[in-house]
Structures are given as C-alpha cells and as structure tokens.
Amino acid sequence: MGMAVGTSRPAERHGALLCPMEGPAPGAGGLGIDPDDLPDGLVVADEHGRVVCFNAAAARITAVRAADVLGLPLEHALPLEDLNGRRWWTLTDPYGGLATRVGQPERNLLLPGGREVLVSARYVRERPTGPLRRLVISLRGTEARRRSERSHAELIATVAHELRSPLTSVKGFTATLLAKWERFTDDQKRLMLETVDADASRVTRLIAELLDISRIDSGRLEVRRQPVDIAAAVGRHVQAHVTNGHGSDRFLVRIRRDLPMLWADPDKIDQVLGNLLENAVRHGAGTVTIEVAPATTAGPADAECDEERGTAVTVSDEGPGIPEESMARVFTRFWRGSKRGGTGLGLYIVKGIVEAHGGTITVERGPGGGAQFRFILPVGAPAYLA
Ligand SMILES: Nc1ncnc2c1ncn2[C@@H]1O[C@H](COP(=O)(O)OP(=O)(O)OP(=O)(O)O)[C@@H](O)[C@H]1O
Ligand SMILES: [Mg+2]
Question: Tens digits of per-residue pLDDT, 191-241?
C-alpha cells in the first residue's frame, strides 16, 4: 500500500495525477500525506519526464498554477536556469546522464524573471543504476536564508562598532603615553593605564560573550549536568555583591524548603544568576528579591506526562522596570533600554543557557513595580537515574 499523494483537487486525487510514493514506510500504514500540506515546494516527474505532481508550495514559489503545468515536460513546467543562464535540466540531464547519480544537492537556481529558488532533486530508480522512474524535486524560497544572512551582516556591524570604541581608547592612551611619557605625573599615568585596563577588560568580556552567542546560535552550547545546589549559588552571588559594597539590606533571599533535585551545569547557572542579579542592581533599584521555589514545567514533548517538576528562580527589583512595549525585546541581542546599559548581550545569553537546559525564562512587572525575571529549570536528571 502506498501513501496517497495527489494534488489538492479531489477529483484528481485518485485519478491519473496520483503519484504514489514508495510504501509502506514503517509505521506509515494508511497515512495519506497530501503534498499540499508540505511546507516546501514538491514537484514530481514520471519516467517520461512529465510533471505528475506540483504542490501548493511549488505553485506559490514559482507563481505558476499547478493545473497549467501538470502533464507538461519538466523543462517547460519548471524552466530553471543556473546563475550563468544555462538551462538546468539540459545541463544535468537526469534521464540520460550517469545512471549512478542519485540526485542533486541543494542549489541556488533562477526561475524565469530572475527569481531565486533553492532546488534539490532525488532520482528514484527501478533498481540501482537502472532507468529513472521518478524525479522528485523540492523547492524552497530564499527569503528565510536572505533574512538570516542580513541578520549576520548586522551582527558583524554591531560587533565591529562595539569593539571599536574601547579599542580606540586603548590605542589613544597607549600612543599618548608612549609619545609623551616624561610629561605626565605618576598619577596621570596611573589613571590612563586604569582606563586602558578597563577598556581591555571590556573587549575581553565582549569577545567571551560573542563566543557564547555563537555557541547558542549554532546549538553547540554544551551543558555538563551535575547536581546543583541553587540555594547555595544564590547565597554566593548575594555575598559577592555585598562584598562589593552593596548593603546587605539591598537583597532579600527566600528559599523554599521542598525543592526538587536539580541537575544542571553549575558554571552556566552561575552565569545566569550573575547576569540577572547584576541587571537588578545596575538597571533596577530598591530591594532585590530572589526567590527559589519548586515549580512545574512543561515537560519534554516526548514525555508521557506533560508536566515535570522543576525549580523556579525569580529575581525582582523595585526600579523602573521594563516598559511594556519592550518586554518582547529584552531577550534579543544588543537590545538595551538605557544609556546605562552594557552591550545588551546578557539576557540573550541567559535565555540561551536556560533553554539549553530545557527551561524557560519570562519577564514581567514585579509586585514592587520593577522588573521581575523568572526562569524555570527541569530536574534534568540523567537517564540512568530516571
Ligand atoms: N532589572 C532590570 N530593570 C530595568 N531594566 C532592565 C533590568 N534588567 C535588564 N534591563 C534592561 O534590559 C537591557 C538588556 O539587558 P542585558 O542584560 O541583555 O544587557 P545589559 O545589561 O545592558 O548588558 P550586558 O549584560 O551585556 O553587560 C538593559 O540594558 C536594561 O535596559
Ligand atoms: Mg546585563
């Protein structure tokens, strides 16, 4: 039994234009997949090179109606050209070319009128090296890729800009000191070197943040899980701020007793807590309240039950908070609300780390009027303990 694959017109679905797939796939018994449900364009040609399937996404991408091309030879239905203007089907000759070919990798090709489209093809043969029985082509618009390319270009521009100002200062002060060393007093020299030192630290930190971001964006952020005492970690962070001169009355820590276990990457959790507390102190005001409590999280998609126990950490302050209209943007990179802001990467990294742990993070207006950030981490116990 094959999977019924036809066009969206019911009259044709069981008629001559039916293009049954190889079947049955394991577990796919009776699963009828309508090609119009596919997110990508799908074009199928039969053993004579005539189009037998042209789904809705293909029609949208090529701006051609399926009814107008069904039954036509492929080179008329889908007259693709490569970037040098050569006709793609003549060039690749899927029906006559090497019988060992199994397909074409994804390529950027042009439709009539110069519209770009990403095309890949699979050659379905009767038997290996046998004649082509079916040519299956998938089409994708290039907008999404273009958009991500544009966002990369913007990222590079922003990074260059962020690096330039501290480096300009480093360069300026070192050049001045080298040129006129004798003319400055020790105090002046010390002041300049302190500025150079601070700016060099800023560059180092920015680069560390950028490396984190590239790991987050490429899904390479590694989480080394071990049991974490999050209450102790919160205590350490508060202590560090108090040691740095903030009054201990600035912080209020509430730890619930019935906390579940937490398996997480302790260094990364430190990074999250460090950022949220630093933000509350730097951008917020008044008392910073940190609450650690048990919580239920939306469990992983494949779990039998859809809820899972976890730990919720809430950091709230009594400052100006985040304006309602900006709440959706605080977790994006380089967004900063005021001039006092840093690089605006902190919360993006925090969100990336929390999500790499399978958790979630949200922001809202706290009871004291300021910002309230809450992240929830699932227990995350390794499988052998489950
Ligand atoms: N507790 C808070 N109260 C008010 N505004 C906040 C708070 N936390 C964050 N913000 C706003 O969100 C912006 C983004 O925060 P984020 O931590 O991402 O960057 P940053 O603190 O400016 O720089 P970085 O953390 O990279 O040094 C901040 O610039 C600030 O305007
Ligand atoms: Mg920050």
Answer: 999 999 999 999 998 899 999 998 998 888 999 999 999 999 999 999 999
CA distances 74 to 47, 49, 62, 135, 310, Å, are 11, 6, 13, 9, 55
Q: Is 41 near ligand 1, meaning CB less than 6 Å away?
A: no
Task: Provide the strand spans (E) within 115-250.
Answer: 116-125, 132-141, 226-227
> Both tokens of residue 376?
């929830």
What are the structural domains, with CATH classification, of the chain? 10-141 (3.30.450.20), 145-217 (1.10.287.130), 226-385 (3.30.565.10)
* Closest ligand 1 atom to Cα of 344: 19
361 lines ligand 1 (CB under 6 A): no
* Span from the CA of 227 to the centroid of ligand 2 (angstroms): 26
Average pLDDT over residues 64-80: 95
Residue 62: which region, alpha, beta or left (left: phi > 0; alpha: psi -120 to 50)? alpha
Helix then strand then coil, % of the chain, to nearest 5: 40, 20, 40
Residue 347 CA to ligand 2 center (angstroms) comes to: 6
Q: Is the pLDDT of residue 22 over 60?
A: no
